[in-house]
User: What shape does this take?
Amino acid sequence: MKKNTSFKKAKLLVPFLFLLFSSIIVQAQNSKLNGKVVDENQTPLSGATVLIKSLNKGTTTNTNGNFRISVPKGSYNLEISYLGYATITQEIQISETTTSTFVLTASAAVLDEVLVSAVRVGANAPVTHSNISKKELAKRNLGQDIPSLLNYLPSVVTTSDAGAGIGYSSLRVRGSDASRINVTINGIPYNDAESQGTFWVNLGDFTSSVENIQLQRGVGTSTNGAGAFGASLNLLTDGISQKQGGQISSSIGSFNTLKNTVKFNTGLLNNHLELSGRFSKIRSDGYLDRASSDLESYFLQANYIDDNTLIKALLFGGEEITYQAWYGVDAATAASDRTFNAAGAIYDNSWNIRAFYDNQVDNYKQDHAQLHWNQKYNNTISSNVALHYTRGRGFYEEYNQAWGDDGNPINVADQVAENADNIVRRYANSHFYGITYSLNYKNEVVDFILGGAANKHEGRHFGETIWNRFAGTTEIRDIYYDRPGNKTDVNIFAKVSYKITDKLDGFVDLQQRRVSYKAEVKNAPLVDEIYNFFNPKVGLSYTANEANNFYISYAKAHKEAGRGDFKEIANTADFPRPEELNDFELGWRYKSENMKLNSNIYYMKYVDQLVLTGQVDNNGAFSKTNSGKSYRLGIEIDADIKFNEYISIRPNATFSNNKNLDFNRDINNVPTNFGNTDISFSPEIVAANTISVKPVANLELALLSKYVSEQFLTNLEESDKKLADYFTNDLNVNYVFIPKSVFTSITFNALVNNIFSEKYISNGYYDPDWGTYFYPQATRNFLVGVTFNF
Assistant: This one.
């Protein structure tokens, strides 16, 4: 019955998918401009944007820097832009057929790109990827975390503990959780070294300091940091601004949400030095009861630049205080009181809640320092060296109630010192530091990078009692556990892109990685593991003509287990095994003047994949188990179609099959083979669409739709342990006003999330003692904001 419901809802997407294949854009133009975009050394620039604003018509260059655009005869201003180069506007007269070459000059930002050259790929590289620009991010940047802003990219599923995208939020890609998504900021690893997760709550409003983001699905490049088993997410922070300016941005919304941001930049001082910064504060009560978030963050940057040198120093970080919301709700409560939050509940002996502890919070600070030195030696050779340091410290505080042997709360009068109510703090204290480096040789034929990294994590996990109803012999601040966790991660890599012919490009990426991990983990022997991984990647990209590009790639990746995977294991022989992935990708990219289409088939073959069990620990982290052999097979399609200067759509869809092969588990201490089962948290259909309408100048209305099919919480395909499918819609409004003085622009944004008030659930878990629990997401809610640029 559920499958039928999924099918019916999936049919809602048919109009969007149909447009991918059946939209015929009829044009009456009979004149063509054939052009080529190169740099000062006559090197073709692939992926440069060519735009005729008066006609709202544009295209991008292919691997050889060539483009073709059809327009009526006449005179036009042609704008050509490419990241890292100065944008040019040139008037050109177009007759029957016109051929021209356009030369772009490198700007200060070209050195910025060296920061991420080791982890980024070009437009026609044999890697499945999506790019999202600062301009696109700004349209919905009203306080929600980065996962929410990436929700409409292909194969992405997002969730939020508090239910409204502020606080603890995460994303999955192709069914892989956050610990399998390699995240870098300016090429520096961001994933937590031990858990391997990504905690965006520690970087509130970081979107306001991001220049662009690239999401690589599959193994991707994943040059630095933990191995990517679902995706690589590469963030490049704000580039250098030639002119001084500033920004004041504020937004308000449902659940008493308030965001305030102030940005500034000095522009280039004496043509060499630029200073910039941002300060943000976000406050929200959250959709769930008491699921509040209080986030403060900062971003400071200093740049020194001359013709061939860029030195970039960054300090950024944040502090978060969030009321815990990781307990979820059972099915009955989700149906009757879906905002209920059990965190901090104190029960009487009749199981009635008599109070909530007011400081059941997660409190954490994280500060990052990065120092980058980019050097261009000549027209072909450049280098990047980066030093980084991250300081993390904080705790979560918890009221623990005394429970009797019968599972009921114990009356205060009956408590004894050994079993009494108490309040504890569990701390995480860490230092993460290291160096990354790369040397790049690039000409018209070859692009070669040799690089590596050496990173060290020093962690300490400890708990202290801050209150006990009957103290006995305990003292305030008594430490009741203290466990270190130290990790060293060293890698070296070589990657080369080679132009075999004018139409065929080859790609090879070889990485050797060595990981040493020593830690004390709860109820487990001492962890003292060393891993050596060799990760090769190869691919071919074939550009048949200006419209069509095909690629094929193979990548092998390995990944070590995270800290939580070692918990509650009695013998070292039962420690989790490292994972292995063989990723095969076959893709086709098509582009015309009014349409871009990307499609690919992927086959991800795993050995000892650590799949989510569906169970969580006492702070909401999901447990994992080796599944033996498994695979993910799917097809991804995404497009950008412009019907005219007023209407465009961006549909995407993923259809996949995700299976454990001969899945074995002990049930009541009896080994049991369940055969081939669906991998947990892996929906078969993930689809999205954006319909954008520009009725008048500077006004854009966008309807954003998202569909996720049903998914199991465990790997046993149990009908009572799964999430129902859901289909949601958001409305985004953007209007830019250009005043005559004081401000360069004033932007008004509005976002109505879940406009049809769908009661959906995007995450959950299973507790063997208490049953299935869910994380309800917010019904209809809104955010509105205004940004003053000067």
In short: The mean pLDDT is 89. The chain has two domains: 1-107, 235-337+344-789.
